[in-house]
Amino acid sequence: MASNASGNLLVLVRHGESEWNKLNLFTGWKDPALTEKGRAEAHEGGKNLKAAGLTDFDVAFTSVLQRANTTLDIILEEIGQKGLPIHRDQALNERDYGELTGLNKDDARKKFGEEQVHIWRRSYDVPPPGGESLELTAKRTLPYYNEKIAPLVEEGKKVLVAAHGNSLRSIIKQLENLSPEEIVNTELETGVPIVYRLDKEGKVLSKEILKHKN
């Protein structure tokens, strides 16, 4: 089990399904709530952490958006750590989709063209109008991770991060030394904890994905 592995502990969790995820809308920095399914995903993520013996975190980090905050609160409730210190920062917010924000993804393809929307969604360094590419997202997420989160992990603190698909991709790209092409094609499931064990220099020793149980 993950709890028996050696190395310093970092757990990353993408928030559960939000109301805008359900409607297939570009969400970005907008602040919809979780759906009932999203809340259930968060509960399941917490239960899977508990089953793995991961119930003794020292600190948690999240964005300022409620879908990540609520996911974290539910997970902490499930693992019996509701009083855990939590740091919230917009550096961990989702990628800003600019003019795509609020658009249905199918409608966006009709408006801008399927190829163009695909480029905005799946290129590393081409931002949508008025928004952020994954590269730009990383430029705000990684300094925060490197200054605030990584030092705690490296000193042996057990750290839980509940955030968003693209802010977490930024961190994963650095942790796993992935290429731009590899990271844009990396899918993160909602509510599923990713358990990393790191050495004292932050190098990944092991990775485990705690999948939902059927």
UniProtKB/TrEMBL annotation:
Record site: Transition state stabilizer: H164
Signal peptide interval: none
Keyword 4Fe-4S attributed: no
SUPFAM superfamilies documented for this protein: Phosphoglycerate mutase-like
Pathways per UniProt: Carbohydrate degradation; glycolysis; pyruvate from D-glyceraldehyde 3-phosphate: step 3/5
Gene3D superfamilies for this protein: Phosphoglycerate mutase-like
Keyword Secreted belongs to the record: no
NCBIfam families on file: pgm_1, PRK01295.1
HAMAP family: PGAM_GpmA
Protein name: Phosphoglycerate mutase
Lineage: Eukaryota, Fungi, Dikarya, Basidiomycota, Pucciniomycotina
